Protein backbone atom coordinates (compact mmCIF):
# COMPACT_ATOMS: atom_id res chain seq x y z
CA UNK A 1 0.00 0.00 0.00
CA UNK A 2 1.57 3.27 -1.08
CA UNK A 3 1.25 6.66 0.59
CA UNK A 4 -1.79 7.67 -1.45
CA UNK A 5 -3.70 4.50 -0.55
CA UNK A 6 -2.87 4.96 3.13
CA UNK A 7 -4.09 8.57 3.06
CA UNK A 8 -7.23 7.56 1.17
CA UNK A 9 -8.04 4.84 3.74
CA UNK A 10 -7.39 7.31 6.57
CA UNK A 11 -9.72 9.87 5.01
CA UNK A 12 -12.56 7.35 4.65
CA UNK A 13 -13.17 7.57 8.40
CA UNK A 14 -14.64 11.02 7.68
CA UNK A 15 -17.53 9.63 5.60
CA UNK A 16 -20.03 9.65 8.53
CA UNK A 17 -19.02 13.22 9.36
CA UNK A 18 -19.49 14.26 5.72
CA UNK A 19 -22.91 12.60 5.59
CA UNK A 20 -24.00 14.52 8.70
CA UNK A 21 -22.67 17.80 7.30
CA UNK A 22 -24.36 17.21 3.94
CA UNK A 23 -27.68 16.53 5.64
CA UNK A 24 -27.29 19.64 7.78
CA UNK A 25 -26.37 21.84 4.82
CA UNK A 26 -29.25 20.47 2.74
CA UNK A 27 -31.67 21.62 5.44
CA UNK A 28 -30.28 25.16 5.44
CA UNK A 29 -31.98 27.43 2.94
CA UNK A 30 -29.10 29.91 2.87
CA UNK A 31 -27.75 30.17 -0.69
CA UNK A 32 -24.29 31.10 0.59
CA UNK A 33 -23.98 27.56 1.97
CA UNK A 34 -24.49 26.00 -1.46
CA UNK A 35 -20.76 26.08 -2.26
CA UNK A 36 -19.95 24.33 1.02
CA UNK A 37 -22.60 21.71 0.29
CA UNK A 38 -21.16 21.06 -3.16
CA UNK A 39 -17.65 20.64 -1.73
CA UNK A 40 -18.87 18.22 0.92
CA UNK A 41 -20.83 16.23 -1.67
CA UNK A 42 -17.80 16.12 -3.95
CA UNK A 43 -15.51 14.86 -1.20
CA UNK A 44 -18.12 12.31 -0.12
CA UNK A 45 -18.36 11.05 -3.69
CA UNK A 46 -14.60 10.70 -3.95
CA UNK A 47 -14.27 8.86 -0.65
CA UNK A 48 -17.27 6.62 -1.30
CA UNK A 49 -16.09 5.49 -4.73
CA UNK A 50 -13.91 2.41 -4.39
CA UNK A 51 -13.21 2.45 -8.16
CA UNK A 52 -11.72 5.90 -8.12
CA UNK A 53 -9.35 7.60 -10.49
CA UNK A 54 -6.19 8.50 -8.70
CA UNK A 55 -5.81 12.30 -8.41
CA UNK A 56 -2.41 13.89 -8.58
CA UNK A 57 -0.89 15.10 -5.30
CA UNK A 58 -1.81 18.62 -4.22
CA UNK A 59 -5.09 18.62 -6.11
CA UNK A 60 -8.65 19.28 -5.01
CA UNK A 61 -8.85 16.01 -3.06
CA UNK A 62 -6.15 17.22 -0.70
CA UNK A 63 -7.69 20.69 -0.45
CA UNK A 64 -11.04 19.15 0.48
CA UNK A 65 -9.28 16.97 3.03
CA UNK A 66 -7.99 20.11 4.74
CA UNK A 67 -11.52 21.53 4.77
CA UNK A 68 -12.89 18.37 6.37
CA UNK A 69 -10.24 18.49 9.08
CA UNK A 70 -11.12 22.10 9.83
CA UNK A 71 -14.81 21.27 10.35
CA UNK A 72 -14.14 18.07 12.31
CA UNK A 73 -12.31 20.01 15.02
CA UNK A 74 -15.14 22.48 15.68
- The separation of the N and C termini measures 31 Å
Which runs of at least 5 residues are low in confidence (pLDDT < 50)? none
Overall number of strands = 0
Q: Estimate the mean pLDDT confidence.
A: 79
Reading the helices and strands in chain order gives: HHHH
In terms of topology, how is this protein built?
Layout: H1 3-11, H2 15-27, H3 34-48, H4 60-72
Pfam families: Med15_M (PF21538)
Protein name: ARC105/Med15 mediator subunit central domain-containing protein
Domain ARC105/Med15 mediator subunit central: 4-53
Structure description:
The protein has one domain (3-71). The chain has 4 helices and no strands. It has helices at residues 3-11, 15-27, 34-48, 60-72. Helix 2 runs antiparallel to helix 3 (34-48) and helix 3 (34-48) crosses helix 4. Pfam families: Med15_M. InterPro entries: Med15_central. This is ARC105/Med15 mediator subunit central domain-containing protein.
